[in-house]
Write a structure and sequence with these properties.
Elements (H helix, E strand, L loop, with lengths): L2 E3 L3 E3 L5 E4 L6 E4 L6 E3 L4 E4 L2 E4 L4 E2 L3 E5 L7 E3 L7 E3 L1 H4 L8 E4 L7 E7 L4 E5 L2 E7 L5 E5 L3 E3 L8 E14 L11 E11 L7
């Protein structure tokens, strides 16, 4: 069943916070503005097929991991993005600036839909086919890792990914594929550690 938090969860110093809801399609829900999940410098890991951040903040100077429990669960990040494990821009805004890294999804997650959000910390997003529009991270690094393809959501001139840090994309399929939705429109230093992609404008 679902797990609804009714109070803060706090780890002092480098203490870690691990929350896991293992039931199929079950949710972890923060109940209100008092439900902060905090560690001073330790890692925070939240695993659940559904995540609903109603209020409160999530904060640490350590690493943050947000991931569905079951394999194949789709992920939606940002308003109007589609996914079983879905976080709106408001919910993502509850991630307090200061994490050493943010990782969303895991290697056996399903398709990922990213729509118009600016992360304040280095971010890694992983899953199957990734579609992306207007993902930003300021001066922080962005890493996209796909067991399928990485593509823009629509063939247009909107900048799909912006960072003045390093953008690293790894995909078992094509990146910005010809015959897909169009070449990715990028702004930043781009590194393709493992790629199968056409060379073309904006990719």
């Amino acid at each position: 069943g679902d797990l609804t938090l009714q109070d803060d969860i706090t780890a002092n110093g480098s203490g870690t916070v691990t929350l896991a809801v293992l039931g199929a399609a079950s949710a972890l829900i923060t109940g209100d503005g008092d439900d902060d999940i905090v560690s001073t410098s330790g890692a925070i890991s939240i695993t659940a097929d559904r995540l609903a951040l109603v209020g409160g903040t999530i904060a640490s100077s350590g690493a943050l991991t947000l991931q569905p429990n079951a394999s194949g669960e789709t992920i939606g990040l940002g308003d109007s993005a589609t996914g079983d494990f879905s976080l709106t821009a408001t919910e993502l805004g509850l991630l307090t600036n200061g994490f050493s890294s943010i990782t969303i999804g895991k290697t056996n997650s399903g398709a990922v839909d990213i729509n118009a959000f600016t992360f304040l910390d280095p971010v890694t997003i992983q899953g199957a086919a990734i579609t992306v529009t207007a993902l930003q991270a300021g001066a922080n690094n962005i890493t996209l890792t796909s067991t399928s393809t990485i593509d823009e959501a629509a063939d247009n001139t909107t900048v799909d990914i912006t960072t003045s840090g390093t953008l690293a994309m790894t995909a078992q399929g094509a990146i910005g594929a010809t015959g897909g939705n169009g070449a990715l429109d990028l702004a930043g230093k781009v590194v393709h550690p493992d790629r199968n992609r056409p060379d073309g404008p904006g990719a």
